[in-house]
Amino acid sequence: MFSQALVKLSKSLIGFCGGRVRGEGAIMRDPKTGFAIEMRDGCNAVNVTILLWSAMIAFPAVWRLKAIGLLAGSLIIQVLNIVRFISLFYIGLRSTAWFDFAHEYLWESLIILDTMVVFWLWVRMVARSESIPNAAS
Questions:
Q1: Is the model's pLDDT at 52 over the cut of 90?
Q2: I need a labelling partner for 92 at 20 to 30 A (CA). Which of 7, 22, 33, 47 fits?
Q3: What residues have CB less than 8 Å from 91, skipping those under 6 apart?
């Protein structure tokens, strides 16, 4: 269901930018060529979101900052995943060989790296906020 919502959003974004695609549940299809990609459970970035949540929850920080990190980090990762999905669709329209490379190697590595960068930026924010003296003391 979550993957279907992401495909619907991707389809809407492509349509907003002037492209034409059909959404069929968790599948996005080009009406001209018939090329289609499916967003399966491993493709919806839930796995790296859980990785991010695990790191943030385990990190020693106040719960208010953890909540901010969990919400903002999840949103950032999902936005990047939408970019990933749409780019893979257009790469696949041009070349299945490049699609396979981008899907299995390039974007797989980038989405994990993006997750690590989000966590690193959040840790820096936590460190800065805790080094600021409390005005009430």
A1: yes
A2: 47
A3: 98, 99, 102
